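Follow-up to my post from last week.
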Amino acid sequence: MEKIGSAKKIVIAIGVGLLSAIIALSVALGVIEHKRRSANAQLNNLYEKSYSETMTSLETISTKLSKVSVLEGTKLRQQLLNDVWRECGIASSNLAQMSEGSENLNEAIRMLNQIGDYCQYLGRKISTTQLTETESGHLDTFGEAVSQLNTALAEVQNDLIRGGKVDSSVLTNLSSVTEKIGNIDYSSIDYPELIYDGPFSDGLDDRETKFLNGKDEISVERGIELIAQYFEGSSDIVKQGETKDPIPSYIYGFKYNDREGSAYISKAGGYVVQFDSYCEVTEPNLTDSQCVEKAKVYMEKLGYSNMEPVWVSNNNSTVYINFAYTENDIVYYPDLIKIKVCSDTGHMVGVEAINYIYNHVERDLEVPKSIDHISIPASLSVSSKRFCLIPTEWHTEILCYEVVAKKNDNTYYIYYEAKSGEEEKVMLVIDEDGQLLI
Amino acid sequence: MQKTDKFKGVKIAISLVMVLITATTAVLLYTDILKSSEEADAATLLRQGSTGAKVREMQTKLKRWGYYTGNVDGIFGSRTAQAVRYFQRVNKLSVDGIVGKQTAAALGMSLSGGSSSSSGDVYLLARLVYGEARGEPYTGQVAIAAVALNRVRNSSFPNTISGVIYQPGAFTVVADGQINLTPNDTAMRAAKDAMNGWDPTYGCLFYYNPRTATNAWIRQKPIKLTIGKHVFCA
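User reply:
Got it. Predicted complex:
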């Protein structure tokens, strides 16, 4: 009897324990499920938001493009084209939030970015010249493409509402429409080549490396010799690989100042295109100007001459120095080379010469004899002035007059188009701390 | 005797079930409800070699209070480190010459914040680099950041750094949360270099690890170059 009694107690105890364990488990599962649901709902809300913002932007784009088609003046059209550019950016980034690698949506994103980019270009263009018939034609095509995209997306939205599926993942439901978007014939839009050498370039590989034209190809062995020469004291130089485009180069790995580094040497001419390593500086003892002096020496050694420092910035004791090609007091900003120097040992830990290699070439510039036509605001206290060549987003170059000036403790770089005296570009030095203007 | 033995078997079985349920509950609670994800700590440390406005602010304070006699130059050199150690000793903080959260608090300054949007981008890029390529050679880390920046410039991708990084399906570390790990100095340097124009990939838009990549589509792309474990394609 006694035994059975205690056994009963044990069974009850076990039962209670089991029950509470199960209750705890179900509560935990319940809480997890609740969290999962609310996270899902929030995610869906975000998709919904991206979705409706895309729709609003697409409508705005269509409207503005059609407005442009009936105008002939400059100011309003410029404003509208700029608006289109901005809305295209908004629409494409919202679409990207929903794309999940969908090829069709990616095509739509690309289309929107290109339309935006093209409109921005036209907006700039009409300040000086009229649009050609083809260009106006492009704008019409864009308008059509955008409204097709709009219709396609609107149909999905309707599906969602009609099917009461708003709570389910917008992503899965979108897939039905991406097919429709895929049916738009993007290839019929003939984007001008000129533009698409630009920042959203798909033809970047085709860019000409002007500096390397006519230079003889070097052998792998010669490259090793050159590394030893460029990076004095380097050891264990091995070829790691090579690349064909856009700049045919050999890639070498080697030891330099006790650290592994790798350098890209152009096959044509054997120039350093890029070298990158780093240093951990704990005892900074060189000033920025001392680092600049060191960098000048490295620059000569690498075979790049007439390079003047134009910008210095100190990032946690690694000093970045930008050099630009300079001739007859004209600074050629497209021909830029960047050097990294450690401010303890003064070692060079980086070279980046891609821009120089693309752009450097003998140029024949017509510099205006006087600068009387350039009016600099009297409120600015000017610290330096000079002629310079600046690169545009479309890889063209503009001869400008550079004015470095201060106003209310802010430093500005203002560029006036050399011939017309029009303001071309203005830059504000955001954080002067650790940055040296030369 | 037989009866007790019988009970014993049942008892053990039931206890095991209980332990199992409790353990499952505990694991669930730990991994999901109580999961304290390794959130990125936006605060950075100031140590010897650091430069910038925060160093300047710290030097100004140390100088005003008589701990520091050198120049307020925004460069954290050995004299600044000495001053910090002195300050830490006097204020009974752990004396390491590094300004972390506690020392900063004692100095009455905040290490995070005040950073411009561009440095926010560098930090985000560094998190991507750390998640995707820690342990890779330095050039390989710069390459990951460069690919993200090449995408920003390409028309098929969003036009901002955060747009590119958070594009669904673009980077695995974003999907599995590794992007939230705190990046190390090397990743920060690599991100900074890529922002400054270094691009070891020569304009590539994709990369993968040929050992682990399962996506057939990406494997069809012609390989432009290999850096460390990753191959890069245009």
